[in-house]
Amino acid sequence: EEEVDILVKKIRCSCLEGKPVNLSEMLVNVTNNIIFRTIVGQRNEEEEEDDALTGVTLRLKRTYKEIDAFFELVIKEHKNKMLTTLGGQSNKKNFVEILLQLQEDGMLDFDLNQDSIKAILL
């Protein structure tokens, strides 16, 4: 209730001052404040674009991209290793190589694609 009340007051003030109202931005801020309050138990006083939740979201996306790129590299290296090691017929296989072998054999009841392998590794 308090967050909505604050939103209405901000809209009213902007209108009285003749300033344009960016409802999209205001609704994002209210939503972030409600979530922040629910999680942390207090109001998020920072309402700039780089507020706590937006910053966390950006860091999570960046981290996801880094992890995804890392797993892509790991899988690529293991595929290359399997191609150069007697057609992948080595007796000692690690977890990634076992997953790649299962993917190659195609004997599973589901499609074991690159994204599935990365999800399993995660």
Structure description:
- With 122 residues, this protein is mostly helical.
- It is built from five helices and no strands.
- It has helices spanning 2-16, 23-40, 52-84, 95-105, 114-121.
- Helix 1 (2-16) packs antiparallel against helix 2 (23-40).
- It is rod-shaped.
Summarize the structure.
The protein has 122 residues and is mostly helical. Helix content is 70%, strand content 0%. It has helices at residues 2-16, 23-40, 52-84, 95-105, 114-121.
The largest sheet, given as strand count, sense and whether it forms a barrel, is: none
Q: Please report the distance between the alpha carbons of the first and last residues.
A: 40 Å
Q: What's the number of helices? A: 5
Helix/strand order? HHHHH
Which structural class should the secondary elements be placed in? Answer: mainly alpha
**pLDDT < 50 stretches:** none
Mean pLDDT: 81
**Total number of β-strand segments?**
0
The helicity comes to: 55-70%
- Give the overall shape, derived from the CA principal axes: rod-shaped
Radius of gyration: 25 Å
Strand content bin: under 5%
